[in-house]
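User: Could you go from structure to sequence for me? I need the amino acid at each position, not a summary. Structure tokens:
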């Protein structure tokens, strides 16, 4: 769908380090950059990114490729979509964008039209009252524009979409309308906040009342193929690039809270939109590989959410800290009442989740009463038994013994009895393919060809064939790419070979040989050995033909050919 020349142009203008660092943290080490691999449960930086070759490789799980394949696998999109995403990131106007065959394309078109429609409403006479409300909530024109805030007015959007050629079924499925006696808009007389997926596409809406306190404060798009609250974190699309600078991400409960925090220039913030953490949410956060700061509402429900969320995140091996607000219910109220500086000071002093949990366990207990104190101590011991941090255990036991005048040995004995060693889940290391001597020979030739065009020319001139369908096709693709471009670039060839059934083998050949660096000076010898191998195959095949041939004259002809081949082989 996209010409290879244009794909190469985009790749040549997209530095792989810049693109990958917008998704994960990278640290320079020698000539390359390293990061925690997002494609397996990685805890040590095992992914290497080569600025020179413009490719990446994970030395544990074997993930490898160029800038497009990284985006494709990270974002879980097709190769053309990955090209489109990279083009967008570098500001390249990809002409073929409209031709991309994206799943649920019609639903994304409908939500995009709806978003623009709501924005137009806000900027028209219909939006005066809503604008006044937003101004009273101290949202600037810049923030309103950046978050594409709009207003749903009367029952006209569904009609507009019908006029544009969309069916009632599509409009209802996109969560824009319902069907009663007639088709009617779900969002009416409400301020709208588009909810983007991780790629920044509008997937749904949250809509807030502003002039009628009788209705529910918020209504959200209902679940559909492109909008699942359990898979989306509000503002994740904007926050994910910012977290690489801050090394942390702040989690709040509501969209207004996230927008308010963002308006202070603190852009590493997302909102859960009132749902419990799901596996999909945690996977999004694990991809970032940064510290999680929970900043839930300052009420009983917010305290419980902090506990349950923190435990789920800790169980997923994420680093969790907590900031609790005081005086106001949520970050939006806190910032309005206390100001920017006080909020930023608050951000400088998060506490560990464990410390928060200990404070939470004290709530509703009178520690001057023996029973309440015993329950509290037992709860703390239970929490310590979940941890592998021996220093944390020692510090906590010492503090409990000192603060409550308890026998330290009693506490330690209880801890030892209950402590269990956690079995760490082994990392699935990609097994190296066992190759025969002849397979190694062919792969060495292919690898050397990919490193320098002079070896491609030698292969074409002196051999031109490999004794295996797969290897022959790969070598043929290398040769075809060279003749097409009069040059060879590994990163561009990865794009060229991406649709090939042998693509994964190409990547493996690159990875397996990268550390070995075969002797280039012996390339002619390798070709000679392959020629001999081909002759041996021909000889064996000919011997079988001779054994099966009944015509004496034909057998003599075949025998003469066999003698000739043997001489050539020698």
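Assistant: Here is the amino acid at each position, in order:
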């Amino acid at each position: 769908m996209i010409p290879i020349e244009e794909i190469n142009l985009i790749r040549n203008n997209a530095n792989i380090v810049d693109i990958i660092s917008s998704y994960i943290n990278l640290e320079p080490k020698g000539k390359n950059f390293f990061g925690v691999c997002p494609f397996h449960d990685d805890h040590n930086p095992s992914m290497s990114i080569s600025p020179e070759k413009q490719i990446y490789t994970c030395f544990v799980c074997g993930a490898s490729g160029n800038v497009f394949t990284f985006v494709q696998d990270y974002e879980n999109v097709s190769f053309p979509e990955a090209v489109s995403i990279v083009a967008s990131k570098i500001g390249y106007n990809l002409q073929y964008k409209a031709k991309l065959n994206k799943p649920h394309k019609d639903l994304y078109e409908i939500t995009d039209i709806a978003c623009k429609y709501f924005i137009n409403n806000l900027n028209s006479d219909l939006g005066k009252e809503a604008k006044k409300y937003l101004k009273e909530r101290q949202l600037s024109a810049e923030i309103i524009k950046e978050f594409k805030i709009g207003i749903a007015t009367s029952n006209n959007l569904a009609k507009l979409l019908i006029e544009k050629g969309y069916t009632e079924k599509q409009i209802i499925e996109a969560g824009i309308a319902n069907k009663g006696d007639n088709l009617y808009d779900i969002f009416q007389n409400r301020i709208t906040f588009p909810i983007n997926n991780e790629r920044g596409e509008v997937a749904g809406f949250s809509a807030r009342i502003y002039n009628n306190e009788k209705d529910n404060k918020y209504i959200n798009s209902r679940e559909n193929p492109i909008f699942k609250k359990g898979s989306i974190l509000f503002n994740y699309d904007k926050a994910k690039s910012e977290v690489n600078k801050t090394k942390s991400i702040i989690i709040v409960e509501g969209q207004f809270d996230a927008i308010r925090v963002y308006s202070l220039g603190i852009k590493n913030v997302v909102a859960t939109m009132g749902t419990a953490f799901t596996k999909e949410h945690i996977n999004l956060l694990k991809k970032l590989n940064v510290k999680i700061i929970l900043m839930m509402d300052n009420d009983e429900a917010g305290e419980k959410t902090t506990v349950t969320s923190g435990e789920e995140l800790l169980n997923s091996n994420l680093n969790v800290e907590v900031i609790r607000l005081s005086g106001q219910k949520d970050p939006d109220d806190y910032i309005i009442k206390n100001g920017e500086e006080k909020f930023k000071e608050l951000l400088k002093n998060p506490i560990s989740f464990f410390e928060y949990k200990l404070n939470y366990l004290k709530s509703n207990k009178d520690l001057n009463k023996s029973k309440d104190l015993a329950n509290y101590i037992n709860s703390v011991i239970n929490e310590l038994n979940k941890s592998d941090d021996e220093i944390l255990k020692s510090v906590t036991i010492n503090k409990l013994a000192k603060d409550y005048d308890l026998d330290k040995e009693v506490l330690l004995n209880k801890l030892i009895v209950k402590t269990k060693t956690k079995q760490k889940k082994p990392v699935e290391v990609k097994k190296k393919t066992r190759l025969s001597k002849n397979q190694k020979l062919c792969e060495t030739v292919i690898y050397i060809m990919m490193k320098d065009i002079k070896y491609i020319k030698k292969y074409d001139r002196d051999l031109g064939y490999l004794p295996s369908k797969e290897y022959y096709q790969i070598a043929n693709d290398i040769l075809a790419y060279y003749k097409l471009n009069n040059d060879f670039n590994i990163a561009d060839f990865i794009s060229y070979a991406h649709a090939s059934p042998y693509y994964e083998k190409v990547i493996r050949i690159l990875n397996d040989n990268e550390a070995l660096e075969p002797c280039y000076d012996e390339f002619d010898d390798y070709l000679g050995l392959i020629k001999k191998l081909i002759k041996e195959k021909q000889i064996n095949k000919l011997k079988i033909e001779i054994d099966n041939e009944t015509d004496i004259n034909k057998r003599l002809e075949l025998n003469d050919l066999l003698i000739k081949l043997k001489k050539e082989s020698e």
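One structural detail worth keeping in mind: Residues 248 and 290 are 5 Å apart (CA to CA).
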